Amino acid sequence: MNPTPSWQRSREAYQRATRVIPGGVNSPARAFGAVGGEPIFIARGQGAYIWDLDGNRYIDYVGSWGPLILGHAHPAVLAAIEEAARLGTSFGAPTERETELAELICQAVPGVEMVRLVNSGTEAAMSAIRLARGFTGRDRIVKFAGCYHGHVDSLLVQAGSSATTLGVPNSPGVPPGCTSDTICLQYNDVTALEEAFRQYGATIAAVILEPVVGNMGVVMPTREFLHSARDITQRYGALLIYDEVMTGFRLAWGGAQEFLRRQQLQPKDGPDLVILGKIIGGGLPVGAYGGRAEIMKKVAPAGPVFQAGTLSGNPVAVACGLATLRELQKLQPYNLLEQQTRRLCQGLSELARSCHIPHQLQQAGSMWTLFFNDQPVTDYRRALQSDTQRFARFFWAMLEHGVYLPCSQFEAAFVSIAHDDAIVDQTLAIAREAFTDILSL
Ligand code: PMP
Questions:
Q1: Residue 178 has pLDDT above 90, yes or no
Q2: Nearest atom within ligand 1 for CA of residue 243
Q3: Given 61, 189, 200, 278, which residue is catalytic?
Q4: What tens digit of pLDDT does each residue of 387-430 get?
Q5: How far is the centre of ligand 1, averaged over its atoms, from the C-alpha of 287 (Å)?
Q6: Cα 398 from Cα 372, distance rounded (Å)
Q7: Which residues line ligand 1 (CB under 6 A)?
Q8: 305's torsion region: left (phi>0), alpha (psi -120 to 50) or beta?
Q9: 184 Cα distance to chain centroid
Q10: What pLDDT shows up at residue 1?
Q11: Alpha-carbon torsion (222, 357, 350, 68), positive or negative
């Protein structure tokens, strides 16, 4: 096994960054805050591996938090970026490839007849919420604790302990007025959802949810929950929004809807709007929101709901996303990804069990989370009962031995097509050491 790596150059890079970038990072999830310590700085990636500034190599289960389903620096993706960049990096005028990407998304994702490209998942969620409000003429939004939809003001709401908590912002700078129309419920809680509609139904514009949650760690929906969300929104004339920023083109070619349909969890009628990001940009910034044409035609300039972007549909980003989707369409790697992930999860679970460590390995396709929790995690309350200190020790033990995991208990890890048998075996050998290490601490 490797000796403890040197992180000297990462440490220096971090010190330098903290002088000019708040917290030294451009997004808080990267900061290692939840596991205590300083982030490592990445020099390059190839396939399933990344290398830090000190030359240490890691097996990467973050994959840029989801976009890199083909692994790092995939040749077809690099070629597409290069070719597009040579033709000019931005025009602020329409290009044909934007339509190609939109067509591919409409073909793949059930119920999406029209789609608008934006630059991030946050922007897509923000715009979808505006559209839902504009379309219905209503203000209230229902969201679920532990579901993350980007740093949109109205969605930055923490769950309270009661079933229905009306908008308490969980960041300074978000005025209570921005969140007072947000109702936050526990995931999979059908009773609370029904109660919220009984109370506020006529004023609810939309229910937004992650159809398979990645953002409190991987959590599956119940059949009853998804059916109830679909039925009740239809009954009250509200829209149902699936946030598939993480699950889109990740769980199946048709995203969570296809994945859940196979398991007979998904209702016959799909959501009214779908939010996408991550994989559709293949590692460059692309987000999207789409749905029924009747709704999407309300978006400017076709309709009155304003939304715009200088770099929306950027030609290089779109080429990168298109190349990624075309590769996925060709390979259809979803069964293989799921099998490989299952092998990894079963291996990890056996190791944890042999060390008598209470845990749950929760997997959906190629997304997985090892919860240090003695109960299955079905909502955010349960997720919060996980042993985060044990997770932090496990995270550092894995990192020291060469495996880069998401730096929080409440995140999904990702397997790419570059994670072959040998890499999974190597991960399990490292995990054996890591479990032993954390018990000896
Ligand atoms: N929705 C979901 C489900 C996400 O996982 C994320 C990002 N992790 C977002 C929205 C926000 O996307 P972005 O970070 O691209 O703004």
A1: no
A2: 3
A3: 278
A4: 999 999 999 999 999 999 999 999 999 999 999 999 999 999 99
A5: 9
A6: 15
A7: 65, 120-122, 125, 148-150, 210, 214-215, 243, 245-246, 277, 287
A8: beta
A9: 19
A10: 46
A11: positive
pLDDT of residue 142: 97
* Residue having the nearest C-alpha atom to atom 10 of ligand 1: 149
Res 2 pLDDT > 70: no
In the block, which residue shows the tokens 């970038």? 21
Mean pLDDT in residue range 141-160: 84
Q: Place 316 in a pLDDT band, splitting at 50, 70 and 90.
A: very high
Judge whether 52 counts as a catalytic residue.
Answer: no
Is 243 marked active-site?
Answer: yes
Q: Which of 60, 243, 272, 379 is catalytic?
A: 243
Question: Which is it for strands 182-185 and 165-166: parallel, antiparallel or unpaired?
Answer: antiparallel
Which atom of ligand 1 lies closest to the CA of 285?
A: 15
What are 361's strand-pairing partners?
A: 370
**Would you give the DSSP letter of residue 144?**
E
Alpha-carbon span 233 to 255, nearest angstrom: 21
Give the residue extent of every domain in the chain.
8-61+334-440, 75-331
Q: Whose CA is nearest to atom 13 of ligand 1?
A: 121
- Residue 160 has a pLDDT of 34
**Residue in 407, 402, 392 with CA at minimum distance from that of residue 54:** 402
**Centroid of ligand 1 to alpha carbon of 8 (angstroms):** 31
Residue 243 in this model has a pLDDT that exceeds 60: yes
Mutate to test the pocket of ligand 1, among 129, 215, 216, 276 (most ligand atoms within 8 A of CB): 215
Q: Are 39 and 255 in contact (CB under 8 A)?
A: no
How much distance in Å is there from the Cα of 246 to the middle of ligand 1? 7
325-to-101, 246, 352, 361 alpha-carbon distances in Å: 9, 14, 36, 28
Give me the CATH code for the 75-331 domain, please: 3.40.640.10
Q: How confident is the model at residue 164 (pLDDT cuts 50, 70, 90)?
A: very low
Specify the CATH superfamily of domain 8-61+334-440.
Aspartate Aminotransferase, domain 1 (3.90.1150.10)
pLDDT, tens digit, 9 for 90 and up, residues 328-387:
999 999 999 999 999 999 999 999 999 999 999 999 999 999 999 999 999 999 999 999
